[in-house]
Amino acid sequence: MIITDFSAICNLGDNICEIFQNATNGKLRNFSINSPLPEIKNEKYNIRCNQILLHCVNQIKNSINDLIQKYGKNRIGIVIATANTGIDEFLDTNNPEHSKISNPAEFLEDYLGCNNFYASVSTACSSGIKAFSTAEKLLENGVCDAVIAGGCDGMSRLPLAGFASLEVLIKERSNPMSKNRHGMNIGEGGAIFLLEKDGQGVKILSTGETSDAYHASTPNPTGTEAANAIKIALKKANLKPEDIDYINLHGTGTLANDLMEANAIFQVFGDKVPTSSTKPLTGHCLGAAASIEIALCCQMLKNNPQNLLLPHIFDGEYDDELPKIKLVQKGEKTDKLQHIMCNAFGFGGTNAVIIIGK
Prior knowledge:
The protein is α/β, with parallel strands linked by helices. It has 11 helices and 10 strands. It has a 10-stranded mixed sheet with strand order 3-2-4-5-1-6-10-9-7-8, with helices on both faces. α2 crosses α5. The longest helix has 15 residues, at about 255-270. It is globular, with a radius of gyration of 19 Å. The N and C termini lie close together (about 10 Å). The relative contact order is 0.19.
């Protein structure tokens, strides 16, 4: 499966080039999108996450038109990850259409005039990678010849209140893997990807999925099933741990997540592979988080002649109670950048890993 084109928006910029530049520079901004978003004429679909999605569509509209011309509207599937959908708009308008999880995928299917499989994926914070897993099955089984996949979420009062009630939401910037960490920040954004069986672009080598069955909102601290998801992805891609050149961490900055993820990474890779969390830069964009992070990693592979790595922004005081993993310093480069792994772990113990490559 090939990513033939992609686009993104978040607090760091309204296109992937700007986002990547600000991320590699470690630029700190507030976590809301500052760019104006397009209005949607159909009231049923005029919610913030769809406006974010439409912005991403407009950035690569020519490529989407080419995709439609190549395969036809009946052969293109749509899979969109989301968590919030339009819950704020529903609370304000009492329009049940706004809060339907299927709304973003239905909107894009209607907007593009496609007529094949469409679905939204909502598995908490692992949604963005699960969307790729679903797209992979659609292509492998001949349901579609191409898939538009991605994720979108807007800032929403409900998850803000929910995370605050769990006492993991903080006002200062998150501090993943630090001994001083104590919470996370919420962000917003989106990214979409054009997926084909063949073509020129970034390769999707594999996905790996497991479930903890441990706790509704707390991951298993041992990281066993997260590590198993990594091992599944490596096996499917026919790669060894030493073949991975960079890992984008889920890295929320909460006590429980960082403990679990550090354990999982160390079990498989030790301290040999450069890793970083980009959530101190973008915030945790929930259903869109992994999509934005995959877009950053695609840009790292495709348009990064210096082989810059995404930096791990924290206070530098690593938690010695965690197994030691290798964190990327600001400005750090690598000699080889061929294979990248992204992690996403969500409530309910849902674990998802994706490996992409040149």
